[in-house]
Amino acid sequence: MIQIKKDLQAAHLQPLLQKFWDLSGQKIRNIEQQYDTSQGSPVFTVKGHYTTRGWTEWTQGFQFGSAILQFDATGEVEFLNFGRSKTVAVMAPHVSHIGVHDHGFNNVSTYGNLLRLMREEKIDYNAWEKNFYELALKVSGAVQASRWTPIKNGGFIHSFNGPHSLFVDTIRSCRALMLSHQLGHLLQAENDVRINLLERALLHCQATAQYSVYYGEGRDSYDIWGRTAHESIFNTKDGNYRAPNSQQGYTGFSTWTRGLAWAMCGFAEELEFLQTISDTELLNFGGRDEIETYLLKAARATCDFYLAHTPIDGLPYWDTGAPNLHKLGNYLDQPADPFNNQEPVDASAAAIGAQGLLRLGKFLKDRGEQEAGETYWQAGLTVVQTLLQEPYLSTNPDHQGILLHSVYHWPNGWDYVPEGSTIPRGESSMWGDYHIREVALYLQKINNQEPYYTFYNGVQ
């Protein structure tokens, strides 16, 4: 269980953040100069150098988005120029990609961040450039919404596995639909049927809350408060839910911690976004109270599970049901050990989950729930402090990653295992590197009293 540092303040992390951004810029330059783009998008490192892995193209937006975040944090124009030029030159296929559930990752990280910077007056206003970003986001949200599976009492955006498959991580792609909606767009389907993108996003959130998250209500023998299933399987003939499953975790009845982290972050940021929508508009979809109830229940449950099932320093192992965890003894009562020989730690899950803890904490404090909000907020700070230091911060100039000990797909054996070890360690991933940058930027903006960082700042 995480030992929450109750006296830690965001300002205390500023020296670590400064060091982080210095190292981060070096890593971005290294990849830009040395990575062979003919391989495809960089995904994760092997012996400290980024390589690719053909599954789906879901990480390229993190590469260019990282450069955009670096500019936002430091003002170094070279990173803006790189991120912006690559977005224009390379990202268009991701806008129209009909085969993935990753539009929130690729397109919000690039077009969304660039539009946000223009709205925040961090880059010069240009009407045609603004229109370009907005058009990309409009189309991206509609294309993502078209990947739809109807079920009883709703529906969901299905994963790349097919129409039967609901992934917990797709909660973060709901951002693409919400941005598109806020820009005045919709999905126009057969016979000119006009589909509301906010409605589809909320239905997906509701399905994720209902089927991907557990609440200790007796759904199965392993139903405890806040655990998540990576994949939920449906019968597409009649719309009935059938079973939990896992693609990257150990089993459908254990919790893959990166999937848990996607849910923590996704539900918290959707709660924040909901505050920008009027009560009148939400009446069309059940009303604010009903929507906030299921979003908040899922956010609390997943964050509570993370707090209870993570070692004291806030860094989780890759799956809470991993088969060899018992060989580590009382692993929850000590700091995570990325150098053990039983089960890998996944620092990328911590980077994603920390943002969820911080956002939920702030949301609750703003609602007057000071004690509960403070618990999540301080837990988030505790996790980030661990991540910003060795052995998780990559200080080796020859290593292209910034966040070490990230895991991609351990069941498939895709992660590099160094000589002398039986598990992966010491490597980085594009999603881990992007999300540690994102949570670092989130806290730096708070320290600098800049506009609060959200995915929807560009459309307000």
TrEMBL record:
Per UniProt, what is one GO molecular function of this protein? chondroitin hydrolase activity
Q: Which GO terms describe its biological process?
A: polysaccharide catabolic process
Q: Which UniProt keywords apply?
A: Hydrolase
Quote the InterPro entries the UniProt record gives: 6-hairpin_glycosidase_sf, 6hp_glycosidase-like_sf, UG_Glycosaminoglycan_Hydrolase
Q: Which domain of life is it from?
A: Bacteria
Report whether Hydrolase shows up as a keyword of the record.
Answer: yes
Similarity comment text for this entry: Belongs to the glycosyl hydrolase 88 family.
What is the official name of this protein in its record? Glycoside hydrolase family 88 protein
What organism, scientifically named, is this protein from?
A: Adhaeribacter swui
